[in-house]
Queue: 4 jobs
Job 1
Amino acid sequence: MEYIVISVVALFVSSLTLFSGFGLGTVLMPAFALFFPIPVAIAATAVVHLANNIFKVILTGRHADWGVVIRFAITAALAAILGAWLLGQLSAIPAVTSYQIGERTFDVTLVKLVIGLLIIGFSMFDLIPKLQKLTFDRKYLPLGGILSGFFGGLSGNQGAMRSAFLIKSGLDTKSFVGTNGVCAFLVDLVRLLVYGAAFYTVSFTQISGDIWKLVLLGIFFAFIGSFVGARLVKKITLRSVQHIVGVMLVVVGIGLATGLL
């Protein structure tokens, strides 16, 4: 069963994340967590996520607007580190409330509630027709990187905040997909190098060979999903991408605000 679940999730979500720029880690981690302890699930998801980002850069990186990448990704990566550090400091604050679904308990923290509502607010710029035409001047890209990186690091959903800003930066469909992919790779690489190396090394020394098979399977089907998505880029309009990003932002925002993510 685990092989089917991981394969289907990786394939389907990866094809969507090529356009949205986020979502694979958000959905894949709970899928791994169905069969393995949370630390192992997080480590496995990180490996699939990084490998898929590298593949997306290979597929779409040539369409990236490097002026946007340089102005946006550097400040986003640095701000994400600060946001992640602050999240650690705020983690001791008790949950606002909690509830149970079956045998699982879900905590609603103040940080995730605020960030979830903020992400839902961002989604309105992609779903409300009058706001869809709004764009940001490129001189504000470094500020956009700081905001998306900081709040992304704080909420743990870096991709959602990044896509919400980049979709309004005046890029066409191909440039948005390529630029988002390169920025995602650079930011993820910095975060993993700074915070993840020791944790992931320790986690993977404690697991069996079964998860390695699932990780490789997840990477394989995520690659297929990204490849299929890349073939569809020419047929997808920027308006369609905005709708995909908007809907996924709402889903992530509700998940954070309610403690499900």
Note: The two ends are 23 Å apart (CA to CA).
Job 2
Amino acid sequence: MNDGIVTEKTDGTIVTPRGFKVAGLHSGVKRKRNDLGVIYCERPANAAAVYTLNKIVAAPITLTKKSITAHEKVQAVIINSGNANACTGKQGYEDAETMQRLTAETFNVAQEHVAVASTGVIGEAMPMDKISSHIDKLTLNTDEAAAEAFGESILTTDTFTKSVCFETTIDGNKISIAGAAKGSGMIEPNMGTMLAFITTDAVIDSPVLQALLNEVVDRTFNSITVDGDTSTNDMVLVMASELAEHEPLTTAHPDWKNFVYAFEKVCQVLAKQIARDGEGATKLIEVEVAGAVTEETARQVAKTIVGSSLVKTAVYGSDANWGRIIAAIGYSDVEINPDTIDLSIGSIPLLKDSRPCEFSEEAATEYLANEVINIYVNLHLGEEEAKAWGCDLTYDYVRINASYRS
């Protein structure tokens, strides 16, 4: 794939694709920051979604999954932060339905075409007096300020808003794919406390979009980890307004690869932004594993390395303790040859055929002081490879999570 066919639109936002508007405001669920947001499409958009694999599922996820499964359309998404509406019983589900109904009434859309998402503290009743009285105060717009207000409205312990936009060409016409996300802690996808919303003006049916999302999620959102915890509220939701002018996209379309590449770039950038913003994190860790028998086993080894608390703390301390990396490879539940492993950090070889290489500790320490750390592994067993992303583990992670509810 020629990267020139797919370009990042640096000033693009979630409303760059045709047909979308957003809003965000402070309703009082959180103390200061925006905590209520909405995405609106001028027509019912073809939709696809993936959800948490946690067996404890928050009420908004149950409701949204029911609606999308039945109708394959979403015209509006209402999201609150500060309260997860999880483990809240029958009342929690009724509260999610109330959010759905009020959003439908406010923006004149069918109730079954409204998705609901929540993120925040688990097990507390929804402050519906605050949410219900503010949904009709959401003022839709397409400008950068509205996109930023929306981006802030979905955050919890995040330190920055997360967004990206890519463009490509289908049948000679420019189309956009954009996204906004939140995620900082409890990130062990399949998925973690992570919400991602992706918009596009491409013409594509829901089943085709769903199949693509299922495939790409494994290589992106399901390849990040912060702390190994899986939330009750995760969701990646895609909406296609179909306002671009081209033939419907299928796997047989001559420009299908362009769309797939742009779509995966959006997901990958958002995933890396989430990993970089891990609670208390100071560094992004990218692990690339090559020479595996399958892509799945390569990803499993990569995620085991990046998820190791000992590897994460070594990176935080700028300590080239390769023993922690090789140990993680060994307990990854992947069949390996313990005598054929190459390992390096950045351009510094640490192991060759599982034997230690001479290297400069000073150079390694200097490299590990960077904000992005690359770890390379070659298992020398096959031709497949995969990447995973995570972050270092710091004192601040403990501080943030020790006082999350206070």
Note: Residues 256-276 form the longest helix (21 residues).
Job 3
Amino acid sequence: MDYIDNAAAIRKGEELDTARMEEFIKDSIPGLNGPLQINQFPKGHSNLTYLLTMGDREFVLRRPPFGRKAKSAHDMSREYRILKALRPVYKYCPEPFVYSEDETVMGCPFYIMQRIRGVILRRDFPANLTLAPSQVKELYQKVLRIQYELHTIDYCSIGLENLGKPYGYVKRQVTGWCERYRAAKTPDAPDAEKVMAWLEEHMPPDTNKPGIIHNDFKLDNIVLDESDPLNVVGVLDWEMATIGDPLMDLGSSLAYWVQKDDHPDLLAIRMMPTNADGAPTREELVKLYCELAGIETGGFDFYYCFGLFRLAVIAQQIYYRYYHGQTKDERFKMMIIGVHVLERAACRIAETK
């Protein structure tokens, strides 16, 4: 099926030493035979993700990007530890196999995990994957419930009590993302000071129900069963997971959720089919989440505005690398457009609330 997420040729400058990797993987994972083939998944914008194939076995390798990296970002050992702890209690996690800091292999820490094969939705549904509006609604509500399920896991019981600091989380996030934006700002980036001031003035108190939050829970990190696309079989990209306020996680997810009646500039940068017939609105998703959690639905503007700003910062950090010649990936050239669009969307909330 051509709507399966497939790897492609490795981008120039991001090649791996195939011979050295073949030696490493055969030493680390028993029972492998045949030559190693390495390809690259082309869609990610942060950590680099490769497909390793040996005989009939497929694995995914994750490593940090080349070029400038945020001080605390791209921690491969942390990401591996999260998967190790979560896999037994959250079936959507890929199974991690091996982690290495041996710089003789590729010059940086990395880990290898299970490949979860399936459908990953991008900007639009593939032409040969047709869902009725009722099925779209069912799928998207199911994805939200799976996110809520993550938030309710007893993180202390699986040894992740030190993964993050839930108290003071909102304040640290607002302060930290403001600092990151100012550090990554380029001359062609928006000022964003109005948004940052609004967020600082409207921070809610700490939640009394902190949980494991994914921090990048969106449709193109969700893997669907290729034989039944209404069945979710995996959740990918755990690099930003931590312990914190689940509503911050939901706000970050909804920053990606562009619906039919949104401003035209948001529709222009839409990344996923969240405007499809039958797709719930952000308001409907917030209502469903609050019903599941048994909480009131008011005051969600802060979380959505923060999600938009945070996404703008991520885009700006990626663009910073391209602007300063630290990556040759041409996809990053247009990131600055998204930064402006997201900053304007966040400003509209700040100006009307």
Note: The first strand starts at residue 36 and ends at 40.
Job 4
Amino acid sequence: MSAVVRSRWRTWRQFARSVLSVIGLVLVIVIVLVAVFAPYVAPFPHHAGTFTNFAAASQPPGAKYWLGTDSIGRDVLSRIIFGFRTSLMLGVVVLAIAVPLGTLAGLVAGYARGAVDSVIMRVTDIFLSIPTLVLAMTILGLFRPSQALAMVAVSAVWWPWYARLVYGLVRSIRLQGFVMAAEVIGAPRWRILLSEILPNCAPSILTKTSLDMGLVILLGASLSYIGLGAPPPTPDLGTMVADGASLLPDVWWLSVMSGLAVFLVVLGFNLLGDGLRDLYDRDA
């Protein structure tokens, strides 16, 4: 067995010692697979589009519709499965934008000093001073709500957290001996940032990204709940919770099952993130 394989096996064994972390990983894997193969997994995939069947409207959970139907006869389970796809896409796109942008800003501000540091971090502080949900609502309120606009709005309010995290890490790493040695031999700044400093920031960034995936999905569901998410008939977990809230307590299953779906996806990523954080803290 090679050294790389032994190292990976040892890492997995350390991670697997936490039952909750493994549960989180399993939840995430199952939800991702269900979302990817939604057209093949959902009992009624056509219910995710423009479909109505008033004869089957508001039916409670049963043998045909395991989680019941909504007010226009669409299968709740099928729409939850496709809702996972919508939520995961939101989280992936938002973090794919926010993480590189915030990391780059934190790297530059943490390594440079003077005016560059001050300007970048003051802009970051301005964004951080405004509540995330309020700022996202403000951006979405200026335009017609859509899934793409929701991704842009959440990305615009999420990158400062990574800028602040990476900034603090870089300020502590830049005084380490290996960084100073690279400076002494005349290595370019971009090489020092990407080859020496960034790899040492990666564990913290990865852990935060895993934790933030659930938070971004929760924020997206909150925006959809107030009507600022993906427009109908796109399946969206937050919208489904809002639709069911007006029908409580009679049609309880619409809000309860959709809310439980949000809970499971957020729980999975939080448990996974906690496991990664404990793993990297133990290695440190």
Note: The domain at 11-38+67-283 is CATH 1.10.3720.10 (MetI-like fold).
